[in-house]
């Protein structure tokens, strides 16, 4: 099922496959593929994704004909991937392919200046759904005192609960652990967060190659045309030398 989600499948490939289905790689063609919690991928999926990331070629489940997709890969994890390699949980070649331009995203407790922007984002989202979307000042102030172990996802849930039942509830230690006793994954669901990471990766590649688009595209593993489209989207232009 995981392969079907990523690569799509052909009609009749397995029980319940009543029609052809496009996968994430089809949808990401010409754009970006965001791999959240990449440290959880099994070795078999790593092999197949590595082939797709390197050459853009992949096989939908049940098909013997390869498909091609031109996409940029952005990966996120809360694990130490180098340790995953040492433990045999991640292939070394896959590690080096996805670890081209690492960017550390601090937890929410270390960037509380972002809280008003995030709160505004969630309130606007709820308002678009026709829900009452206002937070009293004392509620917003309490957000600065909380440590946010669940990061952005916890903030979203706290806001949602408050707007639904008019009661402010923060996570405690028992809430932070999931059913297996592991800490809850950091929330990275915001589209803005993904785009910020993508923009930062592109800018870093351009600066490393002195704004040589061909070299930057090669470093990022995408076509020059795809890089140009993303540069236009994010308003990235070479500095004017005076």
TrEMBL record:
Q: Which InterPro entries match?
A: AAA_lid_NorR (IPR058031), Homeodomain-like_sf (IPR009057), HTH_Fis (IPR002197), P-loop_NTPase (IPR027417), Sigma_54_int (IPR002078), Sigma_54_int_dom_ATP-bd_2 (IPR025943), Sigma_54_int_dom_CS (IPR025944)
Record carries keyword DNA-binding = yes
Question: What are the UniProt keywords, alphabetically?
Answer: ATP-binding, DNA-binding, Nucleotide-binding, Transcription, Transcription regulation
Query: Which PROSITE patterns does the entry mention?
Result: SIGMA54_INTERACT_2, SIGMA54_INTERACT_3, SIGMA54_INTERACT_4
Q: Name one GO molecular function term.
A: ATP binding
Tell me the Gene Ontology biological-process terms attached to this UniProt entry. regulation of DNA-templated transcription
Q: Which SUPFAM superfamilies match?
A: Homeodomain-like, P-loop containing nucleoside triphosphate hydrolases
- Where does the Sigma-54 factor interaction domain start and stop, copy by copy? 1-164
Write down what this protein is called: Sigma54 specific transcriptional regulator, Fis family
Which species is this record about? sediment metagenome
Taxonomy-wise, where does this protein's organism fall, top ranks first?
unclassified sequences, metagenomes, ecological metagenomes
